[in-house]
Design a protein that fits this description.
- This protein has 797 residues and is α+β, with helices and mostly antiparallel strands.
- Helices cover 32% and strands 26% of the residues.
- The strands form 7 sheets. Strands 15-14-13-18-17-16 form a 6-stranded antiparallel β-sheet, with helices on both faces. Strands 20, 21, 22, 23, 26 and 27 form a 6-stranded mixed β-sheet that branches. A 5-stranded antiparallel β-sheet has the order 9-8-12-11-10, sandwiched between helices.
- A hairpin with a 4-residue loop joins strand 22 and strand 23.
- Helix 19 runs antiparallel to helix 20.
- The protein starts with 7 loop residues before the first strand and ends in a 16-residue tail after the last strand.
Length: 797
């Protein structure tokens, strides 16, 4: 601190008006030589003044003997007795002088030697001084800096924000720090971290502000690229599609990490095969899976995406795939290895590429592909840290590609199983027209559908889904479909068939639960959904039952649609023991029944509508050929593949030709058998049935009518139906179940049903719930009989 009494007092004209004894001892001048004289006689320029920064002059006190006196002086306003104001000069304390000297030395060293750019701005925010680091950073000489503003030296995109910060510090005094992109007039821009604080003298008067700028361009670029790689690591691998994984990688790296990115994958890996071990052979083909270049200019590529070829040798690409190490290469027109790959050389020259980083995509010593990164700015090479980041990302990508490869292989196997298990849906038959659509989903292979021929001209429609995906779902689906076909051959009602199918699914679930503990399939519950419908074109009735599956949609001839209100039973294989309910409907000629999977309806939803709204609109008008409806829906699915199997099964109700059906009622008398044989023969002759088939049919009719008269209850009805096959039905009102007997040699009877079974292609018993009776039927193949309706896309049934 300054002492209590001043050394001297100087008036406004700079003349000494008071001189203390301490001043006389300090400088050697008596009061008579100083008072009344200008104070400038007591000072001289300091020896170090010539090296000081522009805009500043240093002075030192002069002793009477001529030597310089080192003293820290303080100047304050001084009120004299006459009321005038003069300036009192005080000397600082000894310890203060010592500290002040050290601080001055440190400040001068900091200002001249520190690598941080420093600018001193006056209250008008004009630069009054700058250090050598500031000159180097701005690439300007001091004369072009002093007197200007920071915005004249650096072209800040956020110059208004920077000026606001400077004014805020100048007015409020709070220090501020911010990071700006600083563009230079003669050089490329840089990222600078700026710290601003206010300058005050010892009395608190504002002298201006100081701005310290640190070039953090490389640090910010490294941090930004590190963030890009981290984001890419999170983004890559979200899908099990190999091409999408590669495209996600290049999209994440360009432009944040590189200007151009290319991913090439070993062709065998694309098809789900095991990747070859390293080093990669020269003749192994690679597929260009993804490409990305920054900017909106034309995308110059050496080869298009999807191109398959082996890499020319020797190049950095083949070297990286040989020793499985990355390659960092500077590129120019004289790079010698470009001659080995003319197509890449042309693309590199036209793109202005300056640096290459080739990173192999490897996993446990096996080669999956190659990641090539390029930069176009001169001098913007790949640093060691960036190579490490790229290698880490390449390792992550290799794992993701291998997962996609494994999924592709499993999906291919599952799709193959599904194709072989799902034989082509049988063509339409007399009285009903069918068509179907199957679009396998990315995670499907668990759906089944079929249109099964039943005796009496009827048709069974079945559609279902097995929970899960991949090989296990496809194989389980095959088991369920086989069970459906077997049960359908028993001519069961729809609710009874689902009940027995549920028993089959429950048995399969128990087998799965009994697998070894380390088998992952054991932890996957076996459940399935199903809709089973039987359509009878003779009376245009349809009986349906469902087990956890979406209800069918019915399209009426007038274009209106409705979702059938069917009781929903539990999914197949579930622990719920609730029974299944059957619903019987009467269909109008031309009505269309649409059975579908959930994935199909979800894929068709658009514009905020519910899943079924869009689906129902696409089914109208229903008079179109069914295959045209399927084709239109398939086109809509092209825009986005469904997650599961998209399956659609359509059936249009029609009439069975009356002249292909014959029906008679008989009394329960012995002579009835002869009448039945005679009427059968006459009708078969009318239909043009060959003699051998007619004789066989007569024998079958004789045996079935005899059994109905002997063991059944009147009345007895015989019905013949000629379609793809010849169906013979004998109905009586007895609920007793007939069974096939193997009569002994000496037995006089008991062979009727056995004979009928041997002479027919298939036989069975169908029970009638309303009358309590039963119908015994047989089916015979008609030789050289053309199908009554073999075209699924005709306009009318």
């Amino acid at each position: 601190m300054a002492s209590g009494a001043p050394l001297m007092v100087v008036d406004g004209a700079g003349v000494v008006v008071d001189w203390s004894r301490h001043a006389e001892e300090l400088l050697g001048h008596p009061a008579v030589e100083v008072v009344g004289h200008p104070a400038t006689r007591l000072v001289r320029p300091a020896p170090e003044a010539s090296g000081h920064a522009v805009g500043h002059e240093l002075v030192a006190l002069c002793h009477r003997s001529g030597r310089t006196v080192d003293a820290d002086l303080r100047v304050r306003p001084w009120l004299r007795k006459d009321g005038s104001v003069a300036w009192a000069v005080f000397q600082g304390a000894a310890d203060e002088n010592k500290v002040s000297g050290v601080g001055t030395t440190v400040l001068e060293a900091l200002f001249t030697q520190a690598p941080v750019a420093m600018y001193v701005l006056d209250p008008t925010l004009r630069i009054t001084a700058c250090n050598p680091a500031a000159q180097a950073m701005s690439r300007e000489v001091p004369e072009r800096i002093v007197g200007g503003r920071l915005s004249d030296v650096y072209d800040y995109p956020a110059s208004d924000e920077m000026q606001s910060i400077l004014h805020g510090v100048l007015d409020g005094g709070a220090d501020r720090a911010a990071c700006f992109y600083a563009g230079k007039a003669s050089e490329a821009g840089c990222a600078a971290r700026v710290s601003v604080f206010r300058l005050e003298d010892r009395r608190g008067a504002v002298q201006g502000v100081a701005a310290l700028m640190l070039d953090v361009t490389q640090r910010e670029q490294a941090a930004a690229r590190s963030r890009v790689v981290d984001a890419a690591r999170e983004r890559v691998g979200r899908t099990l599609d190999l091409a999408a994984t590669c495209q996600d990688l290049v999209d994440a790296l360009v432009p944040g990490f590189a200007d151009v990115a290319v991913v090439e994958v070993v062709e065998a890996v694309v098809h789900g095969q095991d990747p070859p071990p390293g080093p990669l052979g020269r003749d192994v083909p690679l597929r260009r899976a993804a490409f990305r270049r920054s900017g909106g200019e034309q995308q110059v590529q050496a080869h298009p995406i999807g191109d398959v070829r082996s890499l020319p040798y020797p190049t950095p690409y083949t070297q990286a795939l040989t020793d499985l190490k990355p390659r960092v290469v500077a590129l120019d027109d004289e790079t010698p290895w470009l001659a080995a790959d003319p197509a890449r050389a042309r693309a590199i020259r036209e793109s202005g590429v300056r640096a290459l980083l080739a990173v192999p995509l490897t996993l446990r010593g096996a080669v999956l592909g190659l990641l090539s990164l390029y930069r176009t700015k001169r001098g913007d090479a790949f640093e060691v840290e960036e190579v490490g980041l790229a290698m880490d990302l390449a390792a992550h990508t290799a794992v993701c590609l291998d997962n996609a490869r494994r999924f592709a292989r499993e999906y291919t196997i599952a799709a193959t199983i599904q194709r072989h298990v799902l034989a082509p849906c049988r063509p339409s038959q007399t009285g009903v027209q069918t068509a179907h659509l199957l679009v396998p989903g990315a995670r499907g292979a668990g759906s089944c559908f079929d249109a099964l021929h039943l005796p009496g001209g009827r048709i069974a429609l079945v559609i279902g889904e097995v929970a899960g995906q991949g090989i296990h779902a496809a194989s389980t689906m095959g088991q369920v479909r086989t069970a459906v076909q077997t049960l359908a051959a028993l001519d069961l009602e729809s609710d009874e068939l689902l009940a027995r199918l549920n028993d089959t699914a429950t048995s399969l679930a128990r087998e799965r639960a009994a697998l070894p503990a380390d088998d992952p399939l054991r932890r996957q519950p076996l459940t399935a959904t199903c809709v089973y419908a039987i359509y009878d074109p003779l009376d245009r009735t349809c009986s349906l039952a469902r087990a956890g599956h979406p209800p069918p949609v019915l399209v009426h001839p007038d274009g209106t649609t409705e979702i059938l209100d069917l009781p929903n039973g539990p999914p197949l294989g579930s622990a719920d023991g609730a029974p299944f309910a059957k619903t019987t409907l009467s269909l109008t000629r031309g009505s269309v029944l649409a059975c579908y999977t959930t994935a199909l309806a979800s894929a068709l939803a658009s514009n905020g509508s519910t899943d079924l709204d869009s689906f129902r609109r696409m089914l109208v008008p229903g008079e179109r050929p069914l295959q045209d409806i399927c084709d239109d829906i398939a086109k809509r699915l092209d825009s986005g593949a469904p997650t599961g199997d998209a399956v659609l099964l359509l059936a249009r109700a029609g009439d069975f030709p009356a002249d292909q059906v014959a029906s008679w009622d008989f009394d329960s008398r012995p002579e009835t058998v002869g009448q039945a044989r005679a009427r059968t023969r006459r009708r078969l002759d009318t239909w043009g049935v060959d003699d051998e088939t007619a004789f066989t049919t007569e024998l079958i009719v004789s045996e079935l009518v005899t059994n109905a008269i002997r063991y059944g209850a009147p009345p007895v009805q015989l019905r013949l139906i000629k379609d793809r096959s010849l169906t013979c039905e004998v109905h009586d009102n007895s609920p007793s179940a007939p069974h096939l007997r193997h009569a002994r040699t000496v037995d006089e009877g008991g062979r009727g049903l056995f004979i009928s079974a041997q002479l027919s292609e298939n036989w069975g018993v169908r029970y009638t719930s309303d009358t309590g009776g039963k119908t015994v039927w047989t089916d015979q193949i008609l030789p050289d009989q053309a199908p009554a309706a073999d075209n699924a896309s005709r306009d009318a049934p």
